[in-house]
Write a structure and sequence with these properties.
This protein is of the alpha/beta class. The chain is 31% helix and 23% strand. It is built from 19 helices and 25 strands. The chain has a 7-stranded mixed beta sheet with strand order 1-16-15-17-19-20-21. A 7-stranded parallel beta sheet has the order 9-8-7-10-11-12-13, with helices on both faces. Strand 11, helix 12 and strand 12 form a beta-alpha-beta unit. Helix 2 packs parallel to helix 14 (343-361), helix 15 (377-399) packs parallel to helix 16 (426-437) and helix 16 crosses helix 17 (450-456). It is elongated. Bound molecules: nicotinamide-adenine-dinucleotide and 3-phosphoglyceric acid.
């Protein structure tokens, strides 16, 4: 395969010379008994999860801080210790959280920065049993490497049905009439309502819930328009809805129903200025988030008769103050955030979030991750050996650093026959970052916080593609990691360009180191590695092997590659145990050894 475009010349070095089988068997009789020659390691292959969260033997603890459906709780209990502690104060939550690996909340628990700080690094997953994640401090979660997942689909219909319930109840004064008759009155003239048929309903936010509300309202004979700057117009057209501008929506609607998330852009989007643009007598439904309405402005608009009625399920502060003018307004119908509260939705949400949290704790990538890239499972399966390769190369490269200006400028090069848009490298970059940072810090790095952690430590990681001609069946041919402006503990790891350079490939599903500096090598990236530059002369393997054998250090593989016959060679040894300082010194003292380094993978 030839590189078709590259800013790095990517000439593959002539094949290194790993020991071949006959060479090895003739050697084996001369080696100490505990030196194993290359053994198939497939059975020992481990795929590290992307969110390595649990030690092998621990049963995780999951704190459930709000009521969750039984089916979800049962699922959680098969995997973890489940602590259902409802109505915790913020202080109690902060105290408990240090004993928990995961936390499951609904909208009633504020997962603040303090919660992440109090967890001492143990909290690895926050599961939001529902859609809105505005009660979770996402920035803090990301900085602490904590994955946030939600359950975005199971309560959609429930929320849409509640929107329709509020719409119809409001139009026919159901709540007010109910209260009146229970107070002993019979006020048939007071509670004359308005009809929905033929009226224009503006759906603000045409996502999952908004779409379902629109479908149902069409069935009531309403004319539906929608405003959503990010929704595809063809999806709206397909169900007979026109997407219009914000101003057109609010100016032409008889009814407005809110279905957008609470974001800085939508906060108080219905305010004095926008109420003034509405048709006099407009009616408003909110099952999204209280914060999208300026509640004081809504009271003014109600008092001025601009807004005839409002029906609200959500409030800026929940529960709202007892003396809230808005809640107590006679033209306002309220429910206590019940949009998702149907038996069916809560069972669905509980299962959806339990599966997501358990999956994340097992280290799988969550399809509903909120603060990490979502990688489809088929892509993940294909990339798995390359994920390990990326991390191991990062680990190896950073351990080769001996000084200089520190690990600041790192370049990762992917050699692939795939088109750039057919290879998502975010996962690979995160794993290189993990490999680079974890050996030199106590920071836990994962896909969630990799970029943040690198940035925080002043490490600039650039990526480059070398596009190969040929069949793109494999996602990658090679990954190369280069660290600039550093000195190395193993001078041979410095390339001609003056950078530490390591390169690896996946062969038969096993990640292998294939280049160190400008030397070709070929060893499996497992356990610990000794890199040794030596004069190419007979007896070296036996001498080094004997030193390790005397120490009861098991050699799992070896490869020798040389540049010029009888001149210089790089010997690479895989060892299961870390040799003692004395043994390493003895290796260094062998006259033909020019330099060597021990690296833990
Ligand atoms: N009351 C409840 O119990 C309840 C239940 C479920 C969902 N919700 C809330 O309903 C809202 C919608 O949920 P969803 O599942 O449909 O979410 P969604 O992400 O599927 O849809 C939200 C839509 O809002 C759009 N949007 C974003 N910014 C906008 C803006 N400035 N103007 C107009 N549209 C904008 C997005 O493009 C998206 O299409 C969320 O706030 C969610 O928290 C409330
Ligand atoms: O965002 C949501 O999913 C809804 O607001 C439901 O919130 P809840 O789980 O607190 O009912």
């Amino acid at each position: 395969m030839a590189a078709s475009s590259s800013s790095f010349s990517s000439t593959i070095l002539s094949s290194p010379s790993p020991l071949n089988k006959s060479h090895l068997s003739s050697l084996s009789s001369k080696l100490p008994h505990n030196i194993c020659l290359p053994v198939p390691r497939q059975h020992r292959r481990r795929v590290p999860p992307v969110f390595v969260v649990l030690s092998m033997n621990s049963k995780p603890t999951i704190l459930v801080s709000e009521k969750l459906g039984d089916a979800g709780l049962d699922l959680l209990k098969t995997f973890a210790n489940v602590d259902c502690s409802y109505n915790l104060s913020p202080e109690e939550l902060c105290t408990k959280i240090s004993l928990c690996d995961a936390l499951i909340v609904r909208s009633g628990t504020k997962v603040s920065r303090e919660v992440f700080e109090s967890s001492g690094g143990r909290l690895k997953v926050v599961g939001r049993a529902g859609v809105g994640i505005d009660n979770v401090d996402l920035a803090a979660a990301t900085e602490h490497g904590c994955l946030v997942v939600n359950a975005p689909t199971a309560n959609t219909v429930a929320a849409a049905e509640h929107g329709i319930a509020l719409l119809t109840a409001m139009a026919r004064n159901v709540a007010q009439a109910d209260a009146s008759i229970k107070a002993g009155k019979w006020q048939r003239n007071k509670y004359v309502g308005v009809s929905l048929v033929g009226k224009t309903l503006a759906v603000m936010g045409f996502g999952k819930v908004g779409t379902e509300v629109a479908r149902r309202a069409k069935g009531l004979g309403m004319h539906i328009i929608a405003h959503d700057p990010y929704a595809p117009a063809d999806r709206a057209h397909a169900i007979g809805v026109d997407l219009v501008s914000f101003d057109e929506a609010i100016a032409t609607a008889d009814f407005i129903t809110l279905h957008m998330p609470l974001t800085p852009a939508t906060s108080k989007i219905l305010n004095d200025e926008n109420f003034a643009k509405m048709k006099k007598g407009v009616r408003i439904v909110n099952v999204a988030r209280g914060g999208v309405i300026d509640e004081d402005a809504l009271v003014r608009a109600l008092d001025a008769g601009i807004v005839a009625q409002a029906a609200l399920d959500v409030f800026t502060v929940e529960p709202p103050p007892k003396d809230s003018k808005l809640v107590n307004h006679e033209n306002v119908t309220v429910t206590p955030h019940l949009g998702a509260s149907t038996t069916e939705a809560q069972e669905g949400v509980a299962i959806e979030i339990a599966e997501a949290v358990v999956g994340a704790l097992r280290g799988e990538l969550a399809a509903t991750a909120v603060n990490a890239p979502m990688v489809p499972s088929e892509v993940l399966t294909e990339l798995k050996p390359y994920i390990i390769l990326a991390e191991k190369l990062g680990r190896l490269a950073v351990q080769l650093v001996a000084g200089g200006s520190g690990v600041k400028t790192v370049k990762v090069t992917y050699t692939s026959a795939r088109a750039p848009d057919d290879l998502d490298t975010r996962l690979l970059r995160a794993m290189v970052t993990k490999g680079l940072i974890e050996p030199i810090s106590s920071v836990f790095v994962n896909l969630v916080n990799a970029d943040f952690t690198a940035k925080q430590r002043g490490i600039r990681i650039s990526e480059e593609r070398v596009i190969l001609d040929g069949s793109p069946q494999k996602p990658l041919e090679a990954i190369r990691v280069q660290i600039a402006n550093v000195e190395s503990r193993f001078a041979s790891a410095i390339s001609e360009l003056g950078e530490i350079k390591v390169e690896g490939r996946v062969k038969d599903g096993i990640p292998r180191l294939t280049k160190v500096g400008d030397f070709g090598v070929d060893v499996s990236l497992e356990g610990n590695i000794i890199l040794c530059r030596q004069v190419d002369q007979p007896g070296m393997i036996g001498t080094v092997g004997s030193i390790l054998g005397d120490e009861n250090v098991n050699v799992s593989f070896m490869s020798v590659s040389r540049t010029v016959r009888r001149k210089q060679a790089i010997m690479t040894l895989g060892v299961d145990e870390k040799p003692s300082k004395e043994a390493l010194k003895k290796i260094g003292d062998i006259p033909a050894v020019e330099e060597f380094v021990f690296l833990a993978l």
